[in-house]
Amino acid sequence: MTNYKFLIWFLFLVATAFVGVTYAGNFYQDFETTWGDNRAKILENGNLLTLSLDKASGSGFRSKNEYLFGKFDLKLKLVPGNSAGTVTTYYLSSLGSTHDEIDFEFLGNLSGDPYILHTNVFAQGKGNKEQQFYLWFDPTKDFHTYSILWNPQSIIFSVDGTPIREFKNLASKGVSFPKSQAMRMYSSLWNADDWATRGGLVKTDWTQAPFTASYRNFNAQACVWSSSSGSSCSSSKKSPSSSSSSSSSQSWLRESLDANGQAKIRWAQKNYMIYNYCTDTKRFPQGSPPECSFA
Ligand SMILES: *[C@@H]1O[C@H](CO)[C@@H](O)[C@H](O)[C@H]1NC(C)=O
User: Fold this and answer.
1) d(CA 261, CA 130)
2) Are the CB atoms for 77 and 142 separated by under 8 Å?
3) Atom of ligand 1 nearest to the CA of 274
4) CA–CA distance from 148 to each of 19, 136, 186, 198 (Å)?
């Protein structure tokens, strides 16, 4: 190689290394595939992850880190076409019998019929706090951002930046809130045709398999938990130059809904909510759970 060509090649290497550092938040770095063998794939140098489901198995991945509070964004493009019977999940969980968990689940449907976005919160092993929504777009056409903000004051679920649900910390009113167990992020695509679509009436059409969901742009501004060193709060997107600006980059830890955010939640709930445990009087004949009266 001439010196000149070597120089160009060297500059190219430096440039790609720099890009790698600046745009950290890469699926190779942040996640590991956990089941389904090669049905879970990390592609495009770590920028794209796909899960697939066929008759033999679904697939899944999880974060390498455990988090104790954080603001998480992930872009998903759901199984297109006839996705009836399939469920794509994206959740935080501490696992175990007294687990804390914050759930997004996407229940598939026949072509052209609406997906259901199912949400739930578990604290100390107790869930039963389901709210379900239709979306205001086709979630199979493009990537959309689904976010979980989990801080000591509340849990806020958002879709493309629009908050759709808030679960407040009402520990002072005797309502359990996830605040002391570290959680990993999990995602999976699996067959749930015994309940997912129209309550189990519509079964998975295996002639359409494999079913595939795609993921991009994971971003966590979060407190990473380690059993040896406790909690350390940062952003996975941090570039070397921003690593000192810690206090300003942790505004998510105190973030709450302003009047505009409250208005957006009311909009989403009025127009797109199809199930709310708080108003399910058949299920809670003695009266709705206590947190419902503070919403
Ligand atoms: C599927 O479509 C039917 C008919 O529009 C609808 O009732 C149902 O809520 C949709 N979603 C799921 C996941 O069943």
Assistant:
1) 21
2) yes
3) 9
4) 27, 19, 13, 26
Angle, alpha carbons 129-177-175 (nearest 5°): 75
- Among 57, 96, 101, CA closest to 189: 57
CB of 197 closer than 6 angstroms to any ligand 1 atom: yes
Cβ of residue 94 lying under 6 Å from some atom of ligand 1:
no
Q: Give yes or no for a contact between 58 and 193, defined as CB atoms under 8 angstroms apart.
A: no
Q: Which DSSP symbol is given to 73? A: E
pTM over 0.85: yes
Helix (H, G, I), strand (E, B) or coil at 188: strand
Q: What is the pLDDT along the chain (295 residues), one digit of tens a residue?
A: 556 655 555 455 444 444 333 344 699 999 999 999 999 999 999 999 999 999 999 999 999 999 999 999 999 999 999 999 999 999 999 999 999 999 999 999 999 999 999 999 999 999 999 999 999 999 999 999 999 999 999 999 999 999 999 999 999 999 999 999 999 999 999 999 999 999 999 999 999 999 999 999 999 999 999 988 888 887 555 444 444 444 556 899 999 999 999 999 999 999 999 999 999 999 999 999 999 998 6
Ligand 1 center–CA 121 separation, angstroms: 23
